[in-house]
Write a structure and sequence with these properties.
This protein is about 35% helix and about 25% strand. The longest helix has 23 residues.
């Protein structure tokens, strides 16, 4: 009997030791369990016409400058992307390279040239936040280079200021979130508000301007506009240097001082009156933006 009682005591003690060990290691929901890491994400759309098959990379912004990579994704056939960025918090710079798009002025599918890109900057996101509806366009790209060129670089305040200023320049109230109207879509104007119309037609005007200049790839005009906007003044200059327009054989062409002002206004009128404009919009529908660009002194504010 003593032996049986002793065996039972030893068994009970053993079970107790195992139980303590199990819970101490976190197996039973104890206080030492490591919480899962935050998992934030960014989704949106690239548009110069929708850019399919492009690579979108997200970068941290450190001390106003582009930092390390925090995420990457490919765009689908409509230019949409979604990427995970872990637990990052702070300002974010998005950069898009590669891919193809339907050029508005010519109606042909064009590749984004190796030296060209589009960018977008988000002033701030929180750790684990889900950010959606972000746009990457020639206008967000212009705002990114403008913010980068401001004192202090791409701070949250400078990013917000540049995004708002470029939006005001093209009469779009939120270039980071408004969806540009696609003027190659039949009847698109009837379903768009004025911000969407101004946004889409401004992008089409860049395409028309590239065609009129003789550029074989209109992505080169996006790069030229980004460089022109980098000092906050659309005058064909990048600081004290003239902006050179790329795109195949046009690598040595100097950008016109009025390309970003009356050049854009004239190109917009030409596109609207061309058979490539399927939106249903007329020059009268876009007269306010055309007049603004025609009389602009080029200062982005």
């Amino acid at each position: 009997m003593k032996a049986i009682r002793m065996s039972r005591k030893l068994l009970t003690l053993g079970l107790l030791i195992l139980s303590v060990s199990f819970f101490g290691c976190g197996g039973g929901g104890g206080g030492t369990t490591t919480p899962p890491a935050a998992s934030g994400s960014i989704s949106g759309m690239t548009f110069k016409g929708p850019v399919a098959g492009a690579t979108v990379t997200a970068y941290a912004v450190n001390n106003g400058a582009k930092g390390g990579q925090i995420g990457s994704a490919q765009t689908d056939g409509q230019g949409n992307f979604t990427m995970a960025i872990g637990d990052y918090s702070g300002a974010v710079m998005l950069q898009m390279t590669g891919g193809t798009y339907m050029d508005e002025a010519t109606g042909t599918t064009m590749p984004m040239q190796a030296g060209d890109m589009m960018t977008s900057v988000i002033p701030s996101i929180s750790s684990g936040e889900t950010v959606s509806g972000i746009r990457m366009t020639p206008m967000t790209s212009m705002a990114q280079t403008m913010a980068q060129g401001m004192p202090g670089g791409m701070t949250a305040a400078n990013i917000a200021t540049a995004n708002a200023a470029v939006g005001n320049y093209f009469m779009v109230n939120d270039i980071l979130h408004v969806g540009p109207m696609d003027p190659l879509t039949p009847g698109a104007g009837s379903a768009a508000d004025q911000n969407m119309k101004d946004y889409g037609m401004a992008i089409a005007a860049m395409s028309q301007l590239a065609k009129g200049t003789g550029m074989p790839f209109s992505s080169g005009m996006v790069t030229a506009m980004m460089n022109d906007a980098s000092d906050g003044h659309m005058n064909g200059m990048m600081g004290n240097s003239q902006v050179m327009m790329g795109g195949g054989m046009m690598g040595g062409t100097v950008m016109s001082p009025g390309a970003g002002t009356n050049g854009m206004a004239n190109a917009m009128q030409d596109f609207i009156q061309s058979p490539m404009n399927k939106s249903g919009l007329t020059v009268q529908d876009m007269q306010s933006l055309i007049n603004k660009l025609m009389t602009s002194n080029g200062v982005i504010q």
